Sequence to fold (600 residues):
Amino acid sequence: MNRARAFMGIVLIAALNLLPCVPAFAQNNPPAAATPPAATAPAPAAAAAAAAPAPTGTWVAAPPWLNSGNNAWQLAAATFVALQSIPGLMILYAGLVKKKWAINSAFMVMYAFASVMVVWVLWAYNMSFGPKWFPFLGQPGPATSAGFELGQATVPEAASGMPDLTFPMATMTYFQFVFAAITVIILGGSVLGRMSFKAWVIFVPLWMTFIYTIGCFSIWGGGWLSQAGAVDFSGGYVIHLAAGVSGFVAAAVVGPRLQADRDHFPPNNLLIALAGAGILWLGWNGFNGGDPYFANANAAGAVLNTNICTAIALLTWTTMDSMKYGKPSIVGAINGMIAGLVGITPAAGYVSGWGAIIIGLCAGIIPWFSMNVLAKTSLISKVDDTLGVLSTHGVAGLMGGLLTGVLADPNMLVYLGTGSNAPGASTTGWYYGNFKQFLLQAEAAVFIIVLNAIGTFVILKAMSFFVSLRMVDATLQTGDSAVHGEEAYSPV
Amino acid sequence: MVLALEAPAGLVQAGAEPATLRCTNPFSGSTWDVAIDPARRTADSFPADFTDRTIRWHDDARGGNFEFDRASGELTVVYASSMGGTFLKDSCRFVQGPEGRRVDSVSG
Fold:
């Protein structure tokens, strides 16, 4: 019986993965992008006359539009972000949870990474970055043909504010995949320790298809928020606010851990958690440094600002912990680090170093207050957000996005411009005289919050008619060995 | 020889004659013209929304959302990028109609 149910589960996932691409093969080419270099055509037989010169053909490594430096940086940045998920968040989660949940938590991360990869290339990439279908969504279609992968990268609805990209669509697709994957992985931090693995297997592709793509296209794919002027440099809204809100709603719908686990949930390995945190921090150099899509000055500024903000936030959070609890907590330091990384994400290339310092201070205080005060109120504490994703990602992402609307420095040029585009692409915040940017940031935040709250609720409620979202209590008491037949640490 | 006779943007009120909006980028000094046709409700041949305060249009060819403030003469352009939107500000004023006549009234 169990085997039959497992088989049906596999069939369901395969159907989820394959159905939407059936009518969409016609779109399997990069929109308005250059075609890959064609092979040299064979010479006509007539040209083989005795007087013909010796063949002079050569090999060229890349088409003229490809810049090796930019392509290399973009692939490296994508790999840094991928490392944030596996092994970064995989071992961070595994180390932070109770011993009996180490394997399940790690495997939820690894499954999501693989599942999103399939969904992404079969239809979700084009829903997020492809030609417009609706003002908030691109047309679904695969990103798998040779012509698509090797063609020049472009985001058709968002091309007017960027130089022509100088790497292939394959680079673009992979770079954006690792962002999509880490979003749902972050979300998963809210439901560790009780969500049914089968429900997680179904939830990930559904959430990626119906929620992530909409927020992503609206802000990054050239959708309505982008057209209005809202900004999100690397995902304060598209990734962290979305994951925080969806995670919180998922935690509420799935239900809490066992009360015994809520009362006593000690990290089983803080050193491995620290290793994960370190990978997360340095991986963020690719997260924020990769988003200008060029190995340019703004990418360097974004990397420096990311590290400034993170350092300040970590130190501030630790100070707050010391003042409140009398001791500097390492778990608190990790949370402060994450809040700093998240807070600077929407702003990294738009604010100066001074802006990064201010955001770092705020990231060490506001998410701390959310986690240590608001989350402990009777109302909020009814929802069992296992790792406090609402505070460290949702609140920090919202704060960073709004502060971008305040602190964005018009001198932080993402791209240089000439003629009618001078001095270049940048964002001007309220502090520099543009109050409208703050309002745009608030509007974008409301959209992401409402989309994720309602969308995640509907998906999980619909799923609950077919699959149990929460493990049964007997399984919850045992943990990893009951779910996977494996344990993190051998008893022998 | 046709002289470009400039009319302060604030004086532009009512009327339906085609006109030329000359815009200047304050950083580069680069100038370019936009053909405004209130009768056809177009700007550079793209459909435009005319109100007493603004003229708005979207450039379907190059992308970008344009908003001209009639009172201040400021042209705000929003270009979409894959990190969100980018704003550019230019200074514009009506200079002449298509036959070189002075234009002091444009609207829709």
About this structure: Strands of chain B lie at 19-24, 31-37, 42-43, 46-50, 54-58, 65-69, 74-81, 84-96. The first strand of chain B starts at residue 19 and ends at 24.
